[in-house]
Amino acid sequence: MRDKKSKVYLNASSCACAAGMTIEEIFETLLSGKSAIVQQSGYIDNVSIPLGKIPSDDDFFEIVHANVATLLSKAPWFDPDETMLLVGSSVGGMCRAEEKFFADGDFKNISVEEMSIHSIADEVQQKFGFKSALSFSTACTSSSIAIDFAYDLISRELYKTVVVIGADELSRSAVNGFDRLGIASRENTRPFDVERNGINVAEGIAVLAISSVKTVECVEIMGCGVSSDAYNITHPHPEGEGAKAAMREALAKAGLDGSQIGYINAHGTGTVANDEIESVAIETIFGKNPFVVSTKAVTGHTLGACGALEVAISAMSILHRTIPPCVNLKSPINVSISHPLTSVKAEVNYVLSNAFGFGGGNVSIVLGRPHAD
Amino acid sequence: MQINLEIVKYTKIEDAQKIASLNEKNIVPDMMLRRRLTRNARIALYLTDQIGSWDVPIVIGNAYGEVNETFDILRAIAAGETVSPTAFQNSVHNTPASYLSIVGKNKGYITTISDLYETSRAILRVGAVKSLTYETLLLIVSDSIDFERIEEVNRCNVKIMECGVAFLVRQTDKDATLSLTQKSYPDYSPSMWPMLELFEHAAELGEKEKIIAIEI
């Protein structure tokens, strides 16, 4: 039972974030080099702050449902009755709780079911009839850790099809919280720049179809690495030991060495601490070979959704043989790694995507172009 | 598909209101770190200390998150006050997991599940799948819902405000010796029920092998 059997493929994705309402639109925005971050008021009293907001007036949960419907139309062989649903979210239904608490001043009209982390999985399962559902909540690695679990379910042939949702809505709690921690930038975020000064909090939805079936337009999920820093609640390990461990484990499981990775979709939050340690960790393992990009300069930091969203973006890079540019980067903090300033056409065969989170959780995922049969 | 888990060790703690002593001073000698611990983190650290396995992969879960910290943030925003940075950093669901990693110097796989009323069952399912990768795992469920507005949301009439259960498990090919009957424990949050029942059965079996089949 312990032996792995099946290869694991990402067959399709459906996403929404500030940069677009489809994964195709998001990828186009990324290639254009234009940030989708816009100044927003109403989240912090009397302050306007740049945030990544989905360009739609629809209810967030309705947008999640629409993306699940789109995904199932892209992967029609996914039978919800036989499919496991995995959700990664750090906020869940928190915005509903905020809305009612701020209106009423109490919790009397709030149902626990509506505000819980599991509310996304529960409502999607009810609407689409998935066989089973689980919700992971590990801060900014929430949807990455769900992908790692999907990898186990498929590779061990416990399930043939898994849908992973990464979803987090912009909440006043998160925006105020990051602001008070001093890591919410008042300007558009500048990942890996010497002048970087924080994140742009954002919302995002990424729905992924993962299976053991190799399809015409798919990428292989080759390996995942998961580690813990064992260091500090909000600060990453100063030498990036946890980040290195996750990246090395993902490479080992994929059967690759660092020189084979063509593109790294970095966690790259734009904070002083994250970008410093992540660039050192990348330099140590990969040297100058891979292109290193943080797409958060365009999408913002979508918190628990970022792992799934950036895996979908990474898959687009493989399928379209194009790496998006580093937006807002003028003076790199580390000249020993390669940051493309314009989009690059490249035969990218292997990509590594990083997600690191509060509490020192680290997840790295290696994607690859499937070999021709 | 079923995966069988052998229960190697198990422990439980609870209180109707607030568990009086969780041995924090011994488990977390660093006073600054100890002062920042959330209630769920204190319970998780206590249970891990009782099991005695700090450096194993962990699947931990809670249904409601860190209710005191979450309420503190909402109250501050509603009042036009600034949000406490400590409350914010401690408000995420994986706060207990993070403190387990920091205190136990655990650099391995740790994940947090939150499936509301199905949280216990979800922890068992994730633990079972991960037992195919890791030799032994620590499974922990806890909930601490003792906060000042609890009466406004406690529609299940839960009477035990703090509870935690932990199991050290490993995958086995041996036949199951116990099973869950979906027993209800009305005084406890439904999120705890399957792991409470498993604890009860494990205790009944005494020195005998305790093996449960988990449906994935």
Could you characterize what this model shows?
The complex is a heterodimer of chains A (373) and B (216). Chain A is α/β, with parallel strands linked by helices and 373 residues long. Chain A has one domain (9-368): Thiolase/Chalcone synthase (Peroxisomal Thiolase, Chain A, domain 1, 3-Layer(aba) Sandwich), CATH 3.40.47. Chain A contains eleven helices and 14 strands. In chain A, the strands form three sheets. A ten-stranded mixed β-sheet of chain A has the order 5-4-6-7-1-8-14-13-9-10, with helices on both faces. A two-stranded antiparallel ribbon of chain A has the order 2-3. Chain A has a two-stranded antiparallel sheet with strand order 11-12. The mean pLDDT of chain A is 96. Chain B is of the alpha/beta class and 216 residues long. In chain B, 37% of the residues lie in helices and 21% in strands. Chain B is built from nine helices and six strands; from the N terminus they run E-H-H-H-E-H-H-H-E-H-E-H-E-H-E. Chain B has helices at 24-27, 31-36, 39-51, 67-78, 85-89, 95-104, 119-130, 150-153, 193-205, and strands at 2-15, 58-61, 110-113, 137-144, 162-171, 211-215. In chain B, strands 3-2-4-5-1-6 form a six-stranded mixed β-sheet, with helices on both faces. The radius of gyration of chain B is 17 Å and the shape is globular. The chains are: A alpha/beta (373), B alpha/beta (216). Chains A and B meet through helix 3, helix 5, strand 5, helix 6 and helix 7 of A and helix 4, helix 5, helix 6, strand 3 and helix 7 of B.
